[in-house]
Amino acid sequence: MPRSPSYLLPCVAGLACLSLAVLLLYKVDDFAAQTKTVVGHNLQPTPWHLFPPKTFSEESRHSRIYKILHCSYLTCSSYAADTKRHRYEPDSTAHKCPEFFRWIHQDLEPWARTGISAAHLKEARKFAAFRAVIVGGRLFVDLYYACVQSRAAFTIWGLLQLLRRYPGMVPDVDMVFDCMDKPSINRTEHGSLPLPLFRYCTTQSHFDIPFPDWSFWGWPETNLNPWDEEFREIKRGSQRTSWTKKHPRAYWKGNPDVDSPVRTQLLKCNHSRLWGAQIWRQNWGEEAKGGYENSKLSNQCNSRYKIYAEGYAWSARAIAKGGQEFMESLSMNRIYDYMFHLINEYSKLQKFKPVRPSSSLEVCAESLLCLADPKQRKLLERSTAHPSPSPPCSLQPADSDLLKNWVQHRRKTIKDIEDMKLIPYKDIKS
Asked: What range(s) does the Glycosyl transferase CAP10 domain occupy (predicted)?
């Protein structure tokens, strides 16, 4: 019987190893291509608000694969969440929350009697970009669609910082989020089954639950710093010029193309001599080319008055009411307290025990920083929270009469302005 050449067996073994390596690489590549990340890898834009697909600057396909797999599956495995409830000093008494925190009760009122069931969330997921589930102090995220710019990553970072600020105190909770401004859960259309969907804005005609804006932790695409830093810059900008030397007119700069009747009408008042106002349209395309240098909030303090004009919906009711006093007191401490109470009150309405979704991935600070680009990472690191030395403020009970009075006062103010006989600014001065 003829013998096989001596080199045949090693060749077959080598070919088998090569085939196995190719197959393994293919499987790894395929696995990475199916892994969705909080910064937008392998995610399509939300169908209700289309935008160009995200691009990433990794040097090569292999570096991209390594980054996705390492950050998504290996980073949090060695991470130990601080779930031990913090013990506060005996003299650390909780002060009362600001009055506007009472809106939390109003925003959650649609579910006060029925509670929030698994059926509510299943239906709400059809309108969501991602789902965030907190279990035992750990955060698990199920991604459905990409969010425009870095909104999803910075919103999720905010949740991680809340867990860090109040370790062991944030309850188990199951929430779904959309990351666009325009509310979608209309009260007329969804009246029989109100859907609990979190987003940054809402109106009185919608069930959408307002949640603190992602930009409190920074907005890298527009060079906006974390809020505490940004407000210090705004304050310094305001103090550069004394009141008597500021322009004696009202100033507004923003985007009027957001289905906002108020902003559309405001454009008609752009006449400094006739109406005493300067109205500027924000051109996002041009601003992006110039690095948003002309959009710095700290450079918009040269006029005596600043006009507040709501967009399609409101995201902070009290800004127009409290003015400077509200701005002075709006610290990140207050933002975290608001988040804590909103999530805490929401969790009380859940009629089921939150569990980690099988399709979700754990997200920790390390994994998010691992996925972020250098510019995003700098802002995220600068907005890192620390355990609070005092407990959250004490949330006051619901007061429907107080809220009703606020709404009526707001409506009356608007009506009074609409009913005013418009007197040109030049006549007022004379």
From this structure: 169-353
Quick: pLDDT tens for 366-415.
999 999 999 999 999 999 999 999 999 999 998 878 778 877 887 787 67
Give the position of tokens 């709400």. 124
Round to whole Å and give the CA distance between 369 and 373: 8
Decide if pLDDT at 361 tops 50. yes
Mean pLDDT of 188-212: 96
- SS3 per-residue string spanning 128-159: CCEEEEEECCEEEEEECCECCCCHHHHHHHHH
Strand partners, 139: 134, 363
10 Å CB burial of residue 411 (0-12, 13-18, 19+) is exposed
What gap in Å lies between CA 326 and CA 318, rounded to an integer?
Answer: 7
The CA distance from 135 to 228, in Å, is 29
C-alpha torsion angle, residues 365, 369, 372, 375 (rounded to 10): 120
Contact 310, 298 (CB under 8 A): no
User: Among 75, 77, 87, 78, which Cα is nearest to 168's?
Assistant: 87
Q: Where are the alpha helices (DSSP H) in 270-315?
A: 284-289
pLDDT in tens, 271-326: 778 778 888 888 877 887 777 777 888 888 888 888 877 776 654 444 444 456 66
List of residues 6+ apart from 313 with CB closer than 8 A: 181, 182, 183, 201, 202, 203, 206
Indicate the helix (H) or strand (E) that contains 297.
none
